[in-house]
């Protein structure tokens, strides 16, 4: 926490807070249309300055940052596309319609997913950027008064006008995007499985036969990247984004009761231990106020249920089903590199 004191003025450097704030707000933001989906999977770069100034009882939020985000998309044909979005300037005086979004396709066909990003994802991101000023003030305003008791209940925020405000008309509020904005947080927890290997836990989560047993109902899961999953009668659903057998799983994840269109991003990491396996969970985008209930759901509906099924020997005897497409690719690759035998 860095403060700079001037005559009748205090500045606070809020860059560390801003990076954490933007990560929580942006990662997991998603849009879907028809059978196409796209989700922000990480905030890779956040550079620039974020300051909150207090002068003569008035607050001034001044920031100018450049962002780079990674995204993953699923097309109608089931294929997966990866890419990034660069926003060269998120500034205190930028209007909601003036943000620049540079969309990069790293792999796959891009036209369809670019249209979805432009039409549906960009308005959501721009709306979240527009909340930075007020949230910055709400979080840090009390720190800028030497005597906390002297701080006004609602500090006066000086809003800087857009540099081009004289020539650019004020845009209409994007009501649809506003309705989708959800305050979120990050939850992390771990669970120890004694006597189980990382691959066994991985299979329990992504193999349909195993998932049906421990979830005690219909289970729509798959190891195929880009496929949707459903558990617990559709109350939990999302999309598998990445999967490394016995190592990790990345998926979008939401409860049916969450606001329409809001997904969190779940990263599961499987670590082999002396006694078995530790599963580490990182979930970005959980609506504020639901952190404890979501953590309990993971413990009860997922981990304790899988542990019980393992203890009863219900999962271990089932064969491991590999993705047939992956098997075909491996076989074809082996054939291509096999040495030619001459007689």
From TrEMBL:
Gene3D superfamilies: 3.30.530.20, Activator of Hsp90 ATPase Aha1, N-terminal domain
Region of interest (Disordered), ranges: 144-166
Any one GO MF annotation of this record: ATPase activator activity
Boundaries of every Activator of Hsp90 ATPase AHSA1-like N-terminal domain copy: 11-142
SMART domains attached to this UniProt entry: Aha1_N
UniProt cross-references to SUPFAM superfamilies, sorted A to Z: Activator of Hsp90 ATPase, Aha1 (SSF103111), Bet v1-like (SSF55961)
Cellular component, GO, one term: cytosol
GO biological process: protein folding
PANTHER family associated with the record: HEAT SHOCK PROTEIN 90 HSP90 CO-CHAPERONE AHA-1, LD43819P
Family membership noted in the UniProt record: Belongs to the AHA1 family.
Name of the protein described by the UniProt record: Activator of Hsp90 ATPase AHSA1-like N-terminal domain-containing protein
Organism: Mucor circinelloides f. circinelloides (strain 1006PhL) (Mucormycosis agent)
């Amino acid at each position: 926490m860095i403060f700079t004191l001037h005559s009748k003025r205090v500045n606070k450097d809020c860059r560390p807070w801003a990076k954490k704030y933007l990560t929580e707000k942006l990662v997991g933001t998603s849009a879907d249309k028809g059978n196409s989906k796209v989700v922000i999977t990480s905030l890779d770069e956040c550079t620039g300055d974020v300051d909150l100034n207090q002068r003569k009882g008035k607050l001034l939020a001044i920031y100018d940052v450049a962002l780079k985000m990674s995204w993953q998309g699923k097309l109608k044909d089931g294929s997966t596309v990866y890419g990034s979005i660069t926003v060269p300037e998120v500034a205190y005086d930028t209007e909601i319609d003036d943000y620049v979004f540079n969309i990069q396709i790293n792999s796959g066909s891009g036209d369809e997913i670019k249209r979805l990003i432009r039409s549906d994802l960009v308005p959501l991101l721009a709306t979240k950027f527009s909340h930075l000023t007020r949230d910055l003030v709400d979080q840090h305003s009390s720190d800028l008064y030497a005597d906390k008791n002297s701080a006004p209940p609602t500090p006066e925020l000086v809003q800087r006008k857009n540099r081009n405000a004289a020539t650019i008309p004020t845009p209409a509020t994007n009501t649809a995007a506003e309705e989708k904005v959800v305050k979120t947080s990050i939850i992390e927890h771990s669970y120890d499985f004694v006597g189980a290997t990382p691959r066994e836990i991985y299979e329990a989560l992504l193999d349909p036969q195993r998932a049906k047993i421990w979830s005690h109902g219909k289970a729509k899961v798959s190891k195929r990247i880009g496929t949707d999953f459903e558990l617990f009668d559709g109350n939990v659903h999302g999309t598998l984004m990445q999967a490394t057998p016995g190592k990790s799983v990345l998926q979008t994840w939401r409860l049916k009761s969450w606001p329409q269109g809001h997904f969190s991003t779940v990263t599961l990491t499987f670590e082999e231990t002396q006694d078995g396996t530790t599963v580490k969970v990182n979930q970005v985008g959980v609506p504020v106020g639901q952190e404890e209930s979501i953590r309990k759901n993971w413990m009860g509906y997922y981990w304790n249920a899988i542990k019980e099924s393992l203890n009863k020997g219900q999962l271990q005897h089932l064969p491991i089903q590999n993705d047939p497409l992956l098997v075909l690719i491996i076989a074809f690759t082996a054939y291509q590199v096999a040495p030619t035998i001459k007689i």
